[in-house]
Design brief:
The complex is a heterotrimer of chains A (about 240), B (about 290) and C (about 250). Chain A has 10 helices and no strands. With about 240 residues, chain A is mainly alpha-helical. Chain A has 2 domains: about 1-25; about 30-245, MetI-like fold (Orthogonal Bundle), CATH 1.10.3720.10. The longest helix of chain A is centred in the C-terminal third of the chain and has 39 residues, at about 155-195. Chain A is globular, with a radius of gyration of 22 Å. Chain B has a domain at about 30-105 and about 185-290: P-loop containing nucleotide triphosphate hydrolases (Rossmann fold). Chain B contains 8 helices and 10 strands. Chain C has about 250 residues and is mainly alpha-helical. Chain C has helices at about 5-25, 35-50, 55-85, 85-95, 105-115, 120-140, 145-155, 160-170, 170-195, 200-210, 215-245. Classes of the chains: A mainly alpha (about 240), B alpha/beta (about 290), C mainly alpha (about 250). Chains A and B meet through helix 7 and helix 8 of A and strand 6 and helix 3 of B. Chain C: One of its GO terms (biological process) is transmembrane transport. Chain C: It is found in: Cell membrane. Chain C: Keywords: Cell membrane, Membrane, Transmembrane, Transmembrane helix, Transport. Chain C: It is a multi-pass membrane protein.
Chain lengths: ~240, ~290, ~250
């Protein structure tokens, strides 16, 4: 309870800093928290905002599905086959730290403008962290579980379905959390400069028309939704890890 | 430990672990046989490590056999090879007359030193795990699991998760999970190594009851001399690496026995004999691990 | 070399050759991608001509500033938070969900505040990297075995010497993780910011080449960034391995 109160205090401090910046930088640069909140309410009441919202989050949904299914499959295979894992891990880590935005032109050249490019861009951001986390999770499963599976005559499929995946679940959720954040980032970057729809486009459009309150309101709403989803995953994450400890 | 009272009558009626009428202590029948078994594995720097053997060993059906030896001598390798968890480099292993070659044959159960309970399953689901994967029908699974839960004194923890249990309780779960598969040969790799001394004594008693109840052949790997002396019919002493069996000691305990035999005179005699045999090997092993190869 | 290293090298070479073949046989059209050999050739020409040196140094400078400030700032903030458990518990939920916030959406805002210069770019790189460093610093400090701190006290070390001789080396593995993430995130943040809205730097140059259908320059610069980041990563990887090998890990 005290912790929750402390967190609220911290949130209030952040809002206060925001207000301070507003006074410091003026209306043209930063809208005040009050004005931003007002504009956010207006946006929430407008159907066109929800259209953009749906666009962004359906792209995110597809991209995340690709990233999670693909990443987990890659991670499982690499985690279970030791040599492949050793070969692939440095490559995956390099890919992870690559500024994937440089690949954006390539994606556009392949997919053209529109939904598929956004989905592809989101997916390439998310798939690698999910693969890395999954591989790490599978590799750190206690060897005694594999021995137990052999003694109990488990088939390969049974091993994966009833031992490997349940054992790796807590780490998989951590990977999903990171994957979610990066996939959203990828989708938004995609929208920011190669789309006529979606929240990323809305931000860029507001910049173009110097509509600072709208820009900040969209960013604020985005951040709130993202933080809420992430907090949900975090809660799940902590519960699962707690169970093991 | 009220739950651990042995339900002998139930066992007789075929409700327990034993598959068939208990073997009448026919110690002559060979249950598992190792001939000239050697295991060499590649070392970290391109060389090879000679971990085990050559070992020759016969386990009679229904006997309680223990292996003691200095740490790193290859005891666990011996168990792995016999269980089919790893293949021997040389030699042959027969279990019930059939060759074991790097595959775990049905009828062998293994309990490991490490906690192998699955943290994502409740106690009863952990115990039922192997049976369900084998496609045993639900009624049979329930019957065997309830029995094992009663036998291992886990009644109050049916629905608990391993994280809520002590180390000793978790090891009981693993033993129960092995038992419900009705193994005819049970291999235990320092199963009580991580437990405190008093718990170990109690677990030893449980193990003896379970051995009598199931009529299974038991091979116990341990570094605790008193544990080996107290539990076994026969004790094999292993040398420092590469592990070889350098002595074979019969205890001549009655089948009905428990930890109280530790007070007997011959118990002291057996442990001191074991230590006499092992002292030099332990010094060798310690020296070896000091120079790391 | 280890077997895995050999295979990895072969895999990478094989992949490049495959791309080369696909491009040359026309499976991948020239409008989509040029063969890797041409990318390398073009990159060599660009580097020799020195036309992009300004952009390259600018980007590297921005990355360096963002990286160093993220590591130093993250370490200081992480250490302070570690010593203030109540503040840490309050801030923890914010740190844990921090990376869910789509930063680049803030970037245009920063441009409005600071103007179209290096400051918002560096700030994005810093913001991206600093929290990874904070989190890993705290993790590292959490994991220092209590017995080592007791040993320090038994040996009469003061707080500063304890920090320098015991805490820092003991937390090194996690600090390293933080540093590696900080370098990767600084690169990502800086180049992405340049890409979105800037008038110079490598990210800008790629976007510019793309908009002007100059695929050769675009791919040459992409190759440059990929190679550069890979080399920097490999350097940190080897360094980390050396330190960890001594500890038997």
């Amino acid at each position: 309870m005290r912790q929750f109160f402390d967190s609220l205090v911290f949130a209030a401090v952040l809002v206060a800093i925001w207000q301070g910046l507003h006074w410091f930088a003026g209306d043209i640069a930063i809208a005040s928290p009050g004005v931003t909140a007002e504009r956010a309410m207006v946006l929430l009441g407008s159907p066109s905002f929800w259209g953009h919202f749906r666009e962004t989050f359906s792209a995110l949904g597809y991209a995340l599905a690709i990233a999670v299914l693909g990443g987990m499959t890659i991670g499982l295979v690499l985690g279970l086959h030791r040599l492949s894992g050793e070969v692939a891990e440095p490559i995956l880590v390099s890919l992870y730290s690559l500024p994937k935005i440089t690949l954006y032109p390539l994606i556009l050249l392949i997919f053209g403008l529109g939904m598929s490019a956004k989905v592809a861009f989101g997916a390439i951001h998310g798939i690698i962290p999910v693969a890395i986390f999954t591989m790490g999770a599978v590799k750190t499963i206690a060897p005694v579980y594999f021995k137990t599976a052999r003694v109990l005559q488990l088939s390969r499929r049974q091993l994966v379905a009833t031992v490997v995946i349940p054992a790796a679940i807590p780490e998989l959720v951590s990977g999903l959390r990171v994957g979610f954040s990066l996939t959203l980032l990828g989708v938004l970057i995609g929208e920011m400069f190669a789309s006529q729809r979606g929240l990323g486009f809305l931000v860029m459009n507001a910049i173009g028309t110097l509509d600072v309150p709208t820009m900040m309101a969209v960013v604020l709403l985005l951040a709130l939704v993202a933080v809420m989803i992430s907090a949900g995953l975090l809660y799940l994450d902590r519960r699962l890890h707690h169970r093991v400890a | 430990m009220s739950g651990s009272v042995v339900d002998m009558a139930a066992a007789q009626r075929g409700r327990g672990f034993a598959r068939e009428p208990k073997p009448g202590g026919d110690m002559a029948e060979v249950h598992a046989e190792l001939t000239g078994v050697k295991r060499v594995y590649p070392g970290a720097d391109g060389g090879s490590v000679h971990a085990l053997g050559p070992v020759d060993l016969k386990l009679a059906r229904g006997e309680f056999y223990s292996v003691v030896g200095p740490s790193g001598c290859g005891k666990s390798t011996l168990l792995d090879v016999l269980a089919g968890l790893s293949a021997p480099t040389e030699g042959s292993i027969l279990f019930e007359g059939r060759e074991v070659a790097g595959r775990v044959p049905p009828g062998i159960g293994v309990v490991f030193q490490e906690d192998a309970s699955f943290p994502w399953l409740t106690v009863q689901d952990n115990i039922a795990f192997g049976l369900r994967r084998a496609g045993t029908d639900a009624a049979e699974v329930d019957r065997r699991v309830s029995y094992a839960i009663g036998f291992m004194g886990l009644k109050d923890f049916r629905k608990a998760y391993p994280a809520q249990l002590s180390g000793g309780m978790r090891q009981r779960v693993c033993i129960a999970r092995t038992l419900v598969m009705q193994p005819r040969l049970i291999l235990l790799d320092e199963p009580f190594g991580a437990l405190d001394a008093q718990t170990r004594l109690l677990m030893g008693d449980e193990l003896l009851k379970l051995w009598r109840e199931t009529g299974a052949t038991v091979m116990l790997i341990t570094h605790a001399l008193d544990e080996a002396a107290m539990l076994s019919d026969r004790i094999g002493v292993m040398s420092a690496r590469p592990g070889r069996l350098i002595a074979d000691i019969r205890t001549e305990w009655p089948r009905e026995r428990d930890s109280r035999i530790a007070a007997e005179e011959s118990f002291g005699a057996i442990t001191s004999r074991l230590w006499g045999l092992l002292r030099d090997e332990t010094v060798k092993a310690a020296g070896m691990s000091g120079s790391s190869r | 070399m280890k077997r895995a290293t050999w295979i990895r090298t072969l895999v990478v070479i094989g992949f490049v050759l495959l791309l080369e073949g696909l491009c040359r046989w026309g499976v991948i059209g020239r409008m989509t991608m040029i063969p890797p050999s041409e990318m390398a050739d073009q990159l060599w020409k660009l580097l020799q001509s020195g036309r992009y040196n300004g952009h390259i140094f600018e980007t590297l400078g921005n990355v360096a500033v963002a990286f160093v400030s993220a590591v130093v700032g993250g370490f200081v903030i992480g250490s302070i938070l570690h010593s203030l458990p109540r503040a840490r518990r309050a801030i923890d939920p914010f740190l844990a969900t921090y990376y869910a916030i789509p930063f680049f959406a803030f970037y245009p805002l920063l441009v409005v505040i600071f103007g179209l210069n290096a400051a918002p770019i560096i700030l994005i790189g810093f913001l991206f990297g600093v929290v990874a460093m904070i989190i890993n610093t705290m993790n590292g400090l959490d994991r220092i075995p209590r017995v080592l701190i007791k040993t320090a006290r038994v040996n009469g070390l003061g707080p500063l010497r304890t920090a320098w001789l015991i805490k820092l080396p003991s937390a090194a593995p996690q600090l390293f993780t933080g540093i590696k993430l900080a370098i990767a995130y600084s690169f990502i943040g800086v180049i992405a910011a340049e890409f979105i809205m800037s008038t110079s730097g490598l990210g800008y140059s790629i976007a510019y080449a793309f908009n002007n259908f100059d695929n050769r320059t675009m791919y040459a610069l992409m190759l440059f960034i990929i190679t550069l980041v890979t080399i920097v990563n490999a350097f940190f990887h080897v360094w980390e391995r050396r330190i960890m090998a001594r500890r038997g890990q």
